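Team,

Forwarding the record for the chain on the shared tracking sheet. I've put the sequence and predicted structure together so nobody has to dig through attachments.
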Amino acid sequence: MTTAVNPWLALPDGAPTAARTRRLRAAHERLVTTSDLPADGAVRGVVVESWRRSLGSGVDPDGGLPPVELLDADLLAYRAAHPLAPVLPVIRRLLVQDAEADRMIVAVTDASGRMLWVEGDRQLRARAEGMNFVEGARWSEDVAGTNAPGTALAVDSPVQIYGSEHFRRTVQPWSCSAAPVHDPVTGALLGAIDVTGGDHVASPHVLTLVRATVAAVEAELRWLHRERPPGAAAAAAAGPARLEVLGHDRARLSLPGGHLELSVRHSELLFLLAEAAATGRGRTAAELAVECHAGAAATVTVRAELSRLRRLVGADLLGSRPYRLVGRLATDAQQVRRLVARGEVGPALERYRGPVLPGSLAPGVVLARDRLAAQLRRAVLSGRRPEHLLRYVQLPDGQGDAAVWHALQETLPVGSPRRAAAVAHLQRLRGGAGRLR
């Protein structure tokens, strides 16, 4: 009777061999040069699938470093508010305390793969800085390729990645074991706990240790939830209302009491009022009529729509005389705009789901839509970072933009499979008079 091998373990026998490493490197080389793999079982299924996802996301095996998306005060504020911050002492006690003696780095990420805490062996951490394995950097699989924390988040399972199983060659001298962490009450994915180091980190007992730490962390989170004062959860959830307009013809409004999908006209009106609120102003019915209708428009129609909208969302959010927001309302468009202004192009692209209310012809909406799209495009083109260009060309805005495809062609290495695809796409665009500005 044969014993089933755990597919999540990198080295079930506990140690690598030179022959195994050679087979992995040969398979990796074949994949990145021909998009094909040998059918000899040299690569674990979980790694094959991750390699293919990495290739499909445009990750270059020899490309640039994972982006650092959180710095200084932004990083500190984000970490302090993160649900895993209160349980960091548990992680330090079970993993970090012995990490230096065991020649390991311990990292804690959020659900997007951003490194929030990176602690442990100082010499290893200094080496790891060379590949941007640092606090604030994003190591999600679609950006950094196959790696234990990024892949654990992608497949929502504990996993090990041994040396040459990494998609990016610069990471192949390292091995890692990681497991996702969930909110024990809601089941929401909170992040991952990762241990990185030499070959010994890919041994079975390290993954067992990481899984045990996750179990202890989730038990602590459950206890903290029970100890939370009555009403604290509701107060935390109340927060500002949120309006999602990117990529949606009908805006989605999230309120403490639930979610609403607004009509097209109500979507336009509430978005325009949110834009006005960002400058500290309100709008008269006549001003909104001009912003909502191309050509002449009756203010009485706008007043009637605003009256219905106010009954729908409540007087604690929408006021009148002039029409204005009296409660806090955050929009995804404003969030992207702020990120672009701070130079955080990666996070901005991650949150940009498409144009503002793409089906709207309201002049005020069209103006805001075009301004945001232009700001994001300028930031992507001026930065000329391959990972940003690759993400942008997947958006509706970028698919027919020859200037962006040209920049992508120039920034990708000559041997990259994605460069060949970019060249071919650019030729098709130029043949069909693609947009080149």
